[in-house]
Design goal:
CATH topology of the largest domain: Collagenase (Catalytic Domain)
CATH superfamily of the largest domain: Collagenase (Catalytic Domain)
Oligomer: single chain
Number of strands: 33
Helix content: 10-25%
Largest sheet: 7 strands, antiparallel
Distance between the termini: 45 Å
CATH architecture of the largest domain: 3-Layer(aba) Sandwich
Radius of gyration: 32 Å
Strand content: 25-35%
Number of helices: 7
Number of domains: 4
CATH class of the largest domain: Alpha Beta
Length: 694
């Protein structure tokens, strides 16, 4: 996706340089109007209600609206076990800032310029984290959902919507579509149908609160987005961008403005002599401080209107159902959850584990780590290393005064070995299910699509890996613009130090479920790692028409012999090391079908330092079939000690031999396929040479 280079410019003092932000509300509203002409009608109806309600308030025709309204809130943290999985404290910071700004309790109101200082208004709204979920179960108003949707940041990322008549839904993600900081939609755009599932605010994690991954400079963006949720436009309107043209926001006491991205407190562009409200929360400037009296009236009118159920959010029955009325709150024990800072590490490498528990505050915790150092811990974020390779089981028990819960994760972390996990370089035709066991898979969304072995297809013989993309359907497609599901197929860890001119070769077959090439957005990404999978570097991307080998299909795809294509990637010299993994990542679309991978091979020649071997020592032939001769310097004569080690450093053969006539007299013994090193000690000097047995 294209990304802008704009970040949030909402600050605490005029003239302080801060990160600027862009809001996606106007773009989302334009899309909604284009898709559903009825949105315009709803806007007109809500606007008529708003004008009448405000007029009745001012004339006394309606009972004066002076109450402080409480709104229940739920935060849905959508994450991929990264920094976007923000802490409970950061969420509470966001709630505190909303309550400060909407009650006009922000200390920086003293810097509001003359003329606007008397217009700055207390909106009389209070936001409280729910203590009951839609089913009446206990909650702390924060839920955590692992999903690749955190990388997308659109309406499809709004997972597990809670009833909008009872909660303000706020979704926190890692990234946002088109690079914006966040967006909400006006009540008129989410009146009925599937649009209801997108009602609320979606925002990047680094614009939530003032601590953790965010900061005070970014902390007003949620205030801005909740303003949109309550039917406020940008101060320049919603039909252009700031700085482009003068516009107005249907609020009489906010002057016509072109919108500002810098904090010019004397800005007067649209109407000569009229200072524009640069310090407004619905601006993009550096110095947001206030909502005007007219904006407060407009938001209160939205909360009085039945449009998008806003008039039910603050009712006593709603507050009781959400557990925020001070009388019906729920208390309970925590629900255990955990994850590792690095999902992939090497043996002996240290990573940090996080307590990801929800529902209630944790007061005590107990960790257990399979093959871990330490094996147990009571820390909130313990540092752990592992002594053996493979998937590791991690157990976390959490408790407070109201209960205890335990989480057992048998795939908490994948530890890679320091040696090659396969004999030789790599030659994998996936002939059996057992052969595929050494190829870990990652189903990031824990859904029905994942890599798995199948014998129903194969490039040259039955047996290959299949990604069942034709099964990628979800109820979330009702509001999503694309699946964007991620599924990974990982190679075993490899030792490639012995290769020259190395290449990765594999065969693939794929069909799509659309005949429109513009809709083919599926991607196969091939990446490599030199640290067992902790970090990845790109090797190849196969996308669009290049990915399609079997044309278009409806439903599952069964490749024939002519549907397979081989792809070869030259491996950089820097990758020829130990602890190497390869990753095949499939990124889905709404038109995904099935992808097949087979015959994954590492090609190349075994490198020798010089034709005669290493300092007078050589293995002949090299590579060999397991039987070989050690050639040595002609001057060597007498007993030598020979040690042969495999790629893991394990000694597989050791003997006293005799050197003479340019060779070392080893007893005949075949070795299994793999990479080896032969070390010879002669007169106190060690010589080593590497070789390959095929």
């Amino acid at each position: 996706m294209l990304r802008t280079l704009l970040f949030l410019l909402l600050g605490l003092a005029a003239g302080v340089a801060e990160a600027q932000f862009t809001c996606g509300t106007d773009d989302r509203m334009a899309r909604a109007r284009a898709v559903d002409p009825g949105v315009r009608l709803q806007e007109d109806l809500l606007e008529d209600f708003t004008r009448t309600w405000i007029a009745d308030q001012r004339s006394g025709a309606r009972e004066l609206d002076t109450a402080v309204l409480v709104i229940p809130v739920v935060f849905h943290i959508i994450h991929m076990e990264g920094p976007e999985n923000i802490s409970n404290a950061q969420v509470q910071s966001a709630i505190d800032i909303l309550n400060r700004d909407f009650r006009k309790r922000n200390a920086d109101t003293i810097t509001i310029v003359n003329g606007f200082d008397t217009l700055a208004s207390d909106v009389r709204l209070e936001f409280r984290l729910a203590t009951k979920d839609p089913m009446g179960n206990c909650t702390n108003g924060i839920e955590r959902i692992r999903s690749v949707e955190t990388l997308v940041g659109d309406n499809g990322s709004k997972l597990n919507y809670w009833w909008r008549h009872q909660y303000l839904n706020i979704w926190v993600v890692a990234d946002m579509e088109n690079g914006v900081a966040g967006y909400s939609q006006y009540p008129s755009a989410v009146v009925a149908g599937t649009s209801v599932l997108g009602d609320g605010v979606i925002i990047r994690h680094n614009y939530v609160g003032a601590i953790g991954t965010s900061n005070p400079n970014n902390s007003r963006s949620l205030t801005h987005e909740v303003g949109h949720y309550l039917n406020l436009q940008h101060t320049w309107g919603d039909t252009n961008d700031p700085g482009v043209a003068c516009g107005e926001d249907l609020v009489e006491d906010t002057p016509i403005t072109r919108g500002w991205t810098t904090c010019d407190l004397n800005a007067s562009y649209c109407v000569p002599g009229v200072i524009e409200n640069v310090q407004n929360f619905m601006e993009y400037a550096y110095c947001s401080r206030m909502f005007s009296r007219g904006q407060a009236e407009r938001m209160r009118a939205a909360l009085a209107s039945p449009v998008a159920s806003r008039n039910q959010l603050w009712l006593p029955t709603t507050l009781a159902a959400a557990g925020v009325d001070g009388l019906n709150g729920a208390v309970c024990g925590p629900l255990a959850g955990l994850y590792a800072d690095d999902r992939f590490v090497c043996v002996g490498a240290t990573t940090r584990f996080f307590d990801n528990s929800t529902r209630a505050l944790v007061t005590d915790r107990a960790w257990t780590f399979q093959d871990g150092v330490p094996a147990t811990s009571t820390d909130e974020q313990p540092l752990v290393s592992f002594t053996s390779p493979g998937w590791k089981t991690v157990t976390l028990t959490v408790s407070n005064a109201d209960g205890t819960d335990t989480k057992v994760d048998e795939h908490a972390i994948l530890v890679g070995s320091d040696w090659s996990e396969v004999p030789g370089a790599l030659a994998e035709p996936f002939p059996t299910a057992e052969a595929a066991w050494s190829w870990p898979v990652m189903n990031w969304d824990d859904n029905g699509t994942s890599w798995a072995w199948t014998d129903a297809a194969g490039a040259d013989a039955p047996g290959c890996m299949r990604m069942n993309g034709s099964d990628s359907r979800s109820p979330l497609d009702l509001i999503d613009v694309g699946d964007n599901d991620l599924d990974d197929l990982l190679s075993p860890t490899l030792d490639l130090r012995w290769l020259d001119n190395a290449q990765l070769a594999f065969k693939y077959a794929y069909a799509t479920q659309t005949t429109d090439l513009a809709q083919v957005t599926e991607v196969l990404e091939v990446t490599s790692s030199k640290d067992c999978g902790k970090t990845w570097q790109p090797l190849a991307t196969i996308a669009g028409q290049d990915l399609i080998t079997g044309g278009a299909t409806s439903g599952p795809f069964d490749p024939g012999p002519g549907d397979w294509v081989q792809h070869t990637v030259n491996l950089p010299v820097s990758l020829l090391s130990t602890k190497v993994r390869f990753r095949f990542r499939y990124v889905s679309s709404p038109f995904s079908s099935d992808l097949y991978i087979d015959d994954v091979n590492i090609l190349g020649s075994v490198g020798l330092d010089e034709p005669g071997g290493v300092q007078g020592l050589a293995v002949v032939p090299n590579p060999n079939e397991g039987l070989f001769v050690l050639r040595c310097d002609d001057a060597w004569s007498g007993p030598v000690d020979v040690t042969i080690t495999d790629a893991s450093g394990r000694v597989v053969r050791s003997e006293r031999a005799r050197a003479g006539d340019g060779r070392i007299g080893l007893h005949s013994a075949a070795l299994a396929r793999g990479v080896y090193a032969a070390t010879v000690e002669y007169e106190g000097v060690h010589r080593s040479v590497r070789f390959v047995v095929r």
